[in-house]
Amino acid sequence: MRKQVEAGDENKIRVIPEYGRQRLLTYAESFRDLADLFEEDETEDGVEGKDDPVDRQDYLWQRKLQENQGLLAEHLKEMAHILSEVAKETYLYRPMGERKFRQISKLLRESGILLKSFFELEREDGHMEISLTMKTISEKYTKLGEHVCIEDVADFVSVATNRRLRAARNTPQYLTPEWNTYYFVEEPDYYLLTGVAKAVKEMEEVSGDNYSFYEAETGRMVTILSDGMGSGEKACVDSERVIEKMERLLEAGFRKESAAQMINGALVAAGQEENMSTLDVCDIDLYTGKCEFMKAGAACSYIKRGRLVDRLSALNFPLGVFGQIEPEILHRVLQSGDYVIMLSDGILDALSQGIGEEMLPEIIGRIEYTNPNEIANQILTYCLKQSNGQIRDDMTVLVIGIWEREEDI
Known about the structure:
Phosphatase 2c, domain 1; alpha+beta; about 40% helix; seven-stranded antiparallel sheet; 3 domains
């Protein structure tokens, strides 16, 4: 539900009504107050002059309690941040002119669609979103199986508005005979193709590496790669859980660093020394080409631009080692024709048996293939040759190619 803001700003609307906004802000302030209390307790427990613990066990227990209080305080602050951002979210809207509305209404009616309202919404990030309230003309379109696909509607509206559009995430795929509001967003300026090549460690049936490509929100593609400690079934389960939790937290609105901290806290709390996994995240904005990498114990990544190769590395620990982690954040801006290459540790281990990791950028720069799958396979094949065909650890290569869309409206 969207609600207009102050009368003096008649073209701006809030995503949620004023009453709900105030409640969210109140909840956010409560979370901040709780975080402050936990931090105060942690500070008081650590002040000088406090009696020393009776024995080592008491000391370790106090240290663990302080760490948990610090983690909880950080999590509460992140929740407060998310609630505040949702409460402040607004749109700038422009009602469609009557003439243009009639044109689009006529175009949709010819395809069996009735249009009730049409609004243009400018999001806070500057991108446009279009809202259409519509329905199929009669129930025959659903009863006879002649469904009206939302992607077809996106094509109609794109032509009418001279703007490339696509259905927004979570928008129903088909129109119904009842009035519903459907949302469309600007098609991003860039599109991606991905490629994967994998090899499983000798004597194992499954890989301890797991990965995920998914659209975190409209126009943002996130790639996650995790390497579980060791190999086999347990390593596979550990890395798979890390990826699932990361996806859920990002989907809920958590920032990448905070999500990594929460997952790390959960792994440390499990109390198993073997419960460690690397975390490698590549977040690409398809509207601007801006790319953010986050690494925790992960192998180097590379950006290939023709024969030039940019190496991205981080010197930190994987998840599950210490109570607090410091994931490395790296920023780059991608151009059309660039390739992002993400690797698991098994690739570097194979190279260490041959020419060494330092030669990998040169090898990547020489690759002439343009298909991401072919690039991934060539890197994996080359590494296998360096290790004489021996697979001492799970090996995974992810390749993401980015290209600019051609104007076709």
